[in-house]
């Protein structure tokens, strides 16, 4: 485990001597030196964060020498993309471990159930939105993996999970029309919490390289609030996807999702662009034709499967829960609900059907994952910082009756849906 993260952490350094001229000027501190100062003023020892930030900058400099910013986008990537094309894409991409949603592709039962569970409407996830099928697939698989359903689960049994989702949802809605400087300050508690957790994790020599990698990745998400060019934004997103693809390729015996990630990278490099918002100076996704719904559908599926693999095999907290309590299922349920619903599903739901605002939302919902503390029994706790009433969700609806609670001590996975890898690790897939 330690060797894998050690290798990935320094791969950018090893290949940093490529001769291509840099297209993007990347400071050694990613232009976030003041953030290190704020972390220090908040009481954190910034020795390891400084190293992680420099590693992130080195990684970007490496990718800047290999990525192309002006490739020609293939015509099939911008062709019409509706419900039938979405079904065909999902069916063709995932044949080894197909998504169960394809048994009834017109249903949005999991989507409606999940959003109703938390008291929200589904936003842009209407039937005519082709991205709604990908969201349905990941939300269904999230609960299927733990032999439960959105309609029979009571998320109040998971500590402050509902309060955390409501808090971060309000913050995202508040942030959309805010200037970049306000967003940087508002999300400092999230980056501080994530970095603080990684510093603590690094105290264990077995997990130090994992912790350093996590810090670098968190900095590469937070830096999107500081970026001042469209090429820089493209580079950061590319680097984050490439890292995840390489990591899964090293550890997952099944290469199905790796191949999806590699295809995703090629599409992203060839077809994606970013344009500055005239009101907030933040960068919006931009592409021709129907590329965005096609790309974001594929990204949602790929990222969900990557995270499912990551949190079932590589996350040190999963290993610690198994050692200390004998079971990590409750922890995994909470972390997967946060990533699948709070981040992936809401990043599309809160965007328009075109998907242009996705980048404004995804980075924030992803960075938010560093704020809560999740215990082995699945209980979520967090300390809210500030109030974002201006971003209150007008679409919040009263919740319906709750059915039986999730029994956190006896959550059982569907054993028939587990696959063992060649290295003996269990990889949960449907």
Spatial sequence of strands, sheet with the most strands: 1-2
Question: From N to C, what is the helix and strand string?
Answer: HHHHHHHHHHHHHEEHHHHEEEE
* Proportion of residues in β-strands: under 5%
What gap, in angstroms, lies between the N and C termini? 25 Å
Oligomerization state: single chain
The 3D shape can be described as globular
Write up what this structure looks like:
Residues 1-19 and 400-430 have low confidence and may be disordered. Helix 14 (291-313) runs antiparallel to helix 16 (329-349). Helix content is 54%, strand content 4%. The protein is globular. A hairpin with a 6-residue loop joins strand 1 and strand 2 (283-286). The chain has helices at 2-14, 33-41, 47-64, 75-78, 83-93, 109-118, 132-144, 161-175, 180-186, 188-201, 208-222, 230-251, 256-271, 291-313, 316-325, 329-349, 358-367, and strands spanning 273-276, 283-286, 373-374, 380-381, 418-420, 426-428. A two-stranded antiparallel sheet has the order 1-2. A two-stranded antiparallel sheet has the order 3-4. A two-stranded antiparallel ribbon has the order 5-6. The chain has 17 helices and six strands. With 430 residues, the protein is mainly alpha-helical.
């Amino acid at each position: 485990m330690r060797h894998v993260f050690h290798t990935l952490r320094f791969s950018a350094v090893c290949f940093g001597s490529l001769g291509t001229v840099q297209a993007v000027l990347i400071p050694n501190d990613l232009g976030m030196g003041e953030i290190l100062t704020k972390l220090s003023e908040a009481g954190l020892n910034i020795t390891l964060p400084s190293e992680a930030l420099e590693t992130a900058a080195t990684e970007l400099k490496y990718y800047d020498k290999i990525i192309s910013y002006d490739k020609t986008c293939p015509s099939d990537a911008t062709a019409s993309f509706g419900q039938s094309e979405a079904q065909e894409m999902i069916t063709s991409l995932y044949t080894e471990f197909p998504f169960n949603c394809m048994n009834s592709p017109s249903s949005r039962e999991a989507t409606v159930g999940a959003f109703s569970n938390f008291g929200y409407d589904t936003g842009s996830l209407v039937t005519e939105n082709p991205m709604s099928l990908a969201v349905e697939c990941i939300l269904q698989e999230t609960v299927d993996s733990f032999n439960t359903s959105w309609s029979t689960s009571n998320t109040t049994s998971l500590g402050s999970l509902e309060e955390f989702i409501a808090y971060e949802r309000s913050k995202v809605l508040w942030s959309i029309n805010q200037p970049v400087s306000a967003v940087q300050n508002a999300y400092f508690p999230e980056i501080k919490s994530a970095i603080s957790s990684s510093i603590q994790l690094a105290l264990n020599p077995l997990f130090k390289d994992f912790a350093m990698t996590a810090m670098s990745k968190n900095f590469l998400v937070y830096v999107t609030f500081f970026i001042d060019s469209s090429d820089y934004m493209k580079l950061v997103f590319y680097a984050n996807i490439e890292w995840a693809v390489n990591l899964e390729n090293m550890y997952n015996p099944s290469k199905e999702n790796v191949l999806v990630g590699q295809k995703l990278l090629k599409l992203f490099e060839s077809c994606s662009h970013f344009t500055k918002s005239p009101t907030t100076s933040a960068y919006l996704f931009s592409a021709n034709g129907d590329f965005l719904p096609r790309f974001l559908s594929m990204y949602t599926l790929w990222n969900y499967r990557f995270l499912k693999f990551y949190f079932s095999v590589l996350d040190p907290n999963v290993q610690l829960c198994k050692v200390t309590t004998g079971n990590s299922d409750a922890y995994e349920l909470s972390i997967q609900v946060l990533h699948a619903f709070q981040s992936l599903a809401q990043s599309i739901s809160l965007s328009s059907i075109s998907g242009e605002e996705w980048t404004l939302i995804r980075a924030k919902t992803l960075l938010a994952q560093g704020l809560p503390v999740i215990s082995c029994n699945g209980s979520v706790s967090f300390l809210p910082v500030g109030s974002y009433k201006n971003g209150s969700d007008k679409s919040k609806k009263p919740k319906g009756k709750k059915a039986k609670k999730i029994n956190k001590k006896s959550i059982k996975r569907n054993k028939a849906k587990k696959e063992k890898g060649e290295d003996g690790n269990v990889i949960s897939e449907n």
